[in-house]
Automatic annotation (TrEMBL):
<protein>
    <submittedName>
        <fullName>DNA-binding transcriptional regulator, HxlR family</fullName>
    </submittedName>
</protein>
<keyword id="KW-0238">DNA-binding</keyword>
<dbReference type="InterPro" id="IPR002577">
    <property type="entry name" value="HTH_HxlR"/>
</dbReference>
<dbReference type="InterPro" id="IPR036390">
    <property type="entry name" value="WH_DNA-bd_sf"/>
</dbReference>
<keyword id="KW-0805">Transcription regulation</keyword>
<keyword id="KW-0804">Transcription</keyword>
<dbReference type="InterPro" id="IPR036388">
    <property type="entry name" value="WH-like_DNA-bd_sf"/>
</dbReference>
<feature type="domain" description="HTH hxlR-type">
    <location>
        <begin position="14"/>
        <end position="113"/>
    </location>
</feature>
<dbReference type="GO" id="GO:0003677">
    <property type="term" value="F:DNA binding"/>
</dbReference>
<dbReference type="Pfam" id="PF01638">
    <property type="entry name" value="HxlR"/>
</dbReference>
């Protein structure tokens, strides 16, 4: 961020603000991480993985990630209904960022214990 002073800075005009608007939410990063690790996931599998999330919150988070072009929702016309989620190309472009966050977390998780 190249600004002469904080008075001129507008957070909403930054890339940082834009990415936050896409991944902000209690479970969105967890969903993206899960899809990175397992490629294709069904709704109930994700619900079991993220045990603390409610069905409504998970459903809303998935809809928002889909509308932002980060994930793909594939619905199969069968009984019972089958819906699978996977990363879209745009979501896959976040993988290096998620991996960097994981590396940072692993490093600092061990060093935090030593403090």
């Amino acid at each position: 961020m190249n600004m002469d002073s904080i008075e001129q800075a507008k957070l909403e005009n930054t890339g940082f603000s834009y990415i936050l608007s896409l991944i902000n939410g209690k479970y969105k990063i967890t969903i993206l991480y899960y899809l990175t690790a397992f490629d294709v996931v069904r709704f109930n599998e994700m619900k079991r993985y993220i045990d603390a999330v409610s069905f409504k919150t998970l459903s809303l988070s998935l809809k928002e990630l889909e509308s932002d072009g980060l994930i793909i929702r594939n619905e199969y016309p069968q009984i019972p209904p089958k819906v699978e989620y996977s990363l879209a190309a745009r979501g896959k472009s976040l993988i290096p960022i998620l991996e960097a966050m994981c590396e940072w977390g692993e490093f600092h998780k061990t060093t935090a214990r030593e403090m």
